[in-house]
Amino acid sequence: MTETVRTTCPYCGVGCGVLARPTAEGVDIAGDPDHPANHGRLCSKGSALGETVGLEGRLLNPQIRGRRVAWFKALDEVAAGFHQAIQDYGPDSVAFYVSGQLLTEDYYVANKLMKGFIGSANIDTNSRLCMSSAVAGHVRAFGEDVVPGNYEDLHRAELIVLVGSNMAWCHPIVFRRIREAQANGARLVVIDPRRTATAGEADIHLPIESGSDAVLFNGLLTFLESNGGIDYEYLEAHTQGFGAALKAARDSAGSIPRVAGQCGVREEDVAAFYRAFLRTDQVVTVFSQGINQSSSGTDKVNAIINCHLIGGRVGKPGSGPFSITGQPNAMGGREVGGLASTLAAHSGFDAADDVQRFWDSPVIAREPGLKAVDLFDAVADGRIRAIWIMATNPVVSLPNADRVRQALKDCPLVVVSDVTRNTDTATWADILLPAAAWGEKDGTVTNSERRISRQRPFREPPGEAKPDWWIIAQVADRLGFRQAFDYPGPAAIFDEHARLSALPRDRQPAFNIAGLAGLDRAAYDALAPVQWPYPEGALAGTDRLFADGRFATPDGRAALVAATPRRPAHERDEHYPLALNTGRVRDHWHTMTRTGLSPTLSAHIDEPIVAVHPRDCRRHGLTDGAMARLSTRWGTLVVRVEASTDQMPGSVFMPIHWSDQYASSARVGSLVNPAVCAVSGEPELKHTPANLEPAPMAWYGFLFTRGGVEAKPLDYWVRVTGQAFTRFELAGRERPADWSSWTRSLLGARDPDADWLEYQDSRAGRYRAAWLVNERMHACFFAAPTTELPARRWLSALFGREALNEAERTSLLMGRPADPAADSGPVVCSCFGVGRNTIVEAVREQGLASVEAVGECLQAGTNCGSCIPEIRGLLS
Ligand code: SF4
Fold first, then answer.
1. What is the mean pLDDT of residues 489-494?
2. What is the pLDDT of residues 127-180, one digit of tens each?
3. 764 alpha carbon – ligand 1 mean position (Å)
4. Which residues are near ligand 1 (CB < 6 Å)?
């Protein structure tokens, strides 16, 4: 295949269209100008997709307990293990833990096997961790899990409220729409405890206390009620539950001073937000993990939806609550019923008979299964005897992750199907199954605005990797269900999925894609991005839901829900006085199994720091850049401190991405409390009481190498992928007696005649060494007793030289670049590799005063635009 293939980005829920053109070296990537989600744009992650499709780290063959086996043997063993557990302990003794990375067709087959043929609903997805509170909130308010809005609404909105979302980093292409709306006069309110890149672009930023969102929106409800902000006609005709919702709001929030006090923000800012909402007809409230990942996440979602319903700001262009999904196919998983709390095709377990008839299945799950956190608890206590984990890494991402790791260690049968050979979860697999990756997979995904797009392959799976749907169907066959899983390909699965969506039920859900049933292979291949609903006979999908004020509830009315604000399940106390918040960074994705391979993406934020307000640094005796012990009741990590006034005092932030594969001690999931929302089961990943104390180190250092390092216990290490080298950030509690031999042994350098440059100041405790091979840099190592070490960027550049000149050799011994301008500083613009120092210097020296001027001068920010908020921050 050499022609350009239209496909979809495999990262976030924006669902950008991608043009992929295979080349001899890999694949060229560009945004698809015809895709309605992105109109040709891609963010830094999407733009760097070509750097993540190599075979490094790929799982290429089936394995049983570490030994390569043939596919038939691995599949026989999976089926036998599941069969035995079901026979001995019943269908609820087995489970699937699946992922928003799966395609809809994969998801459909997994859900059908578990619920219709094994007869259990113990299939849950990692989407439970990011948007199940939104799902539950939608069901309570609208009668069905429906996101009513679409991206075009952001262009039409006059006020955009972003709650719990660092969209500039996490959904950059949608955020660019918001910036355009701002340029056309829309106002932006950002509600987030941190001053994020997104908050920096806001007209009003409300840095509310962690967990106080429901108070803020209940306060808005009472404010609107007291100030003529209720559309009584709409309320009367299309909703129910207003009285109870208003009472709960009055009881918990009340006046603006009371709200401001509870939320820890200024009264005038709360008043400005409330007045803006009151005076604006076209308001879109976008919410994401900051709302959902809470022990009261569903109530927070409904507190937001209530405020839209009372003013009739739903189902109208430019208006509505808008849940943005984290993963590329979280929505597709919801459509097929991949959550343990639904059955299939947006139907609950009351439709079990209908679905069983459709599937012609021997059994059917009749009640919800275990949600993610409960599911792994059941693995831990032995109720689940066989688990199959598909395309996800729960040992990193789930709360109380060390318990998850122990549970897998003790589980009689753990099957993992994945793309990557070595993950923190794959380590505990009895059976490893190689799955096809992005670029090899063939199917559909649905983005945050209910738009179904094709993910098309542009190359064959390497080794023995197979599509997930094929692997599941093969196991189903071995369990005795050949006929029901005998699919010739993904088009047939999609057809069945589409037909199931139109199954006559007591109440027909809005999710109906019967108009897409019956596509032959060619039509399926050619399927253009389309929004649902797409019922039979439709000429196009529907971009506007609830325009007629009729909802998917039995009486057609939307429900206002009495939302009672609750504090986080675990409060801070004298032992754990800080609130640990977790989230994403701009250029990494989930557990870095792909983005960790990209030098470009690894250059932005390269270390798993804990961000701490300077006041808390002083209070806890911490130094910016030094190590600290971050502990909670669930675990302890040793991490580097980053003092940041973007943090509120009393709270700290740590990214979710780093695993044991990339760092000695950075799985933040191991610190997170396992409390969940009682309605949705979504964990409280945004608030865990924590403590910080210094973790003194005798030395700090870093190592660059073209080769590997020989295993050696190191107190602190982080691995960073670079262009032509790997970098390690290091620290140790004890200084080696002999730096020179320690460094050689770490690098496995045994040739006594090798070309080494070395500098040692024993009194100051400084050591620098470089190993050259044929005049080229092969490795270098720098150590010091403090964090005062040379900048890293200019050293990266030396790895690009064919031969070092004398000045460069001297600079290695001096520990500073021969030309100071060579140190461009930490990367801001990933696309063009423009560093912070370069931008700051150009702003100062050339008097650049705008993002556009910086772009014109340095190119920074002119491609994907993900770095524009940071450039604006530097300018200001
Ligand atoms: Fe991919 Fe970025 Fe688009 Fe998300 S915003 S789908 S990560 S290109």
1. 98
2. 999 999 999 999 999 999 999 999 999 999 999 999 999 999 999 999 999 999
3. 47
4. 9, 11-12, 14-16, 38, 42-43, 45-46, 171-173
Sign of the torsion formed by the C-alpha atoms of 842, 846, 850 and 852? negative
Helix (H) / strand (E) containing 692: strand 688-694
Instruction: Please name the residue that has the structure tokens 């770490």.
Output: 746
Residue 416: φ, ψ to 5°: -130, 120
Model pLDDT, residue 186:
98
pLDDT reading at 824 higher than 90: no
Among 26, 855, 853, smallest CA distance to 438 is for: 26
What is the model's pTM? 0.96
Integer Cα distance of 442 and 439 in angstroms: 8
Instruction: Please write the tens of the pLDDT for every residue from 294-310.
Output: 999 999 999 999 999 99
Of ligand 1's atoms, which has the minimum distance to the CA of residue 589? 7
Atom of ligand 1 nearest to the CA of 31: 8
Report the run of H or E that residue 335 belongs to, with start and end. Answer: helix 330-336
User: How far, in Å, is the centroid of ligand 1 from the Cα of 590?
Assistant: 13
Ligand 1 atom with minimal separation from the 42 CA: 8
pLDDT over 70 for what percent of the chain? 100
- Nearest atom within ligand 1 for CA of residue 38: 3
Nearest protein Cα to ligand 1, atom 4: 12
Q: What pLDDT shows up at residue 543? A: 82
Question: Ligand 1 centroid to 46 CA: how many Å?
Answer: 5
Q: C-alpha distances in angstroms, 307 versus 231, 233, 246, 288, 564? A: 11, 15, 10, 17, 14
Strand pairing report for 159-163 and 283-287: parallel
Closest CA to 263 of 194, 311, 193, 201: 193
How far does residue 45's CA lie from ligand 1's centre (Å)?
6
Residue carrying the six token digits 């350009």:
4
Nearest Cα residue to atom 2 of ligand 1: 43
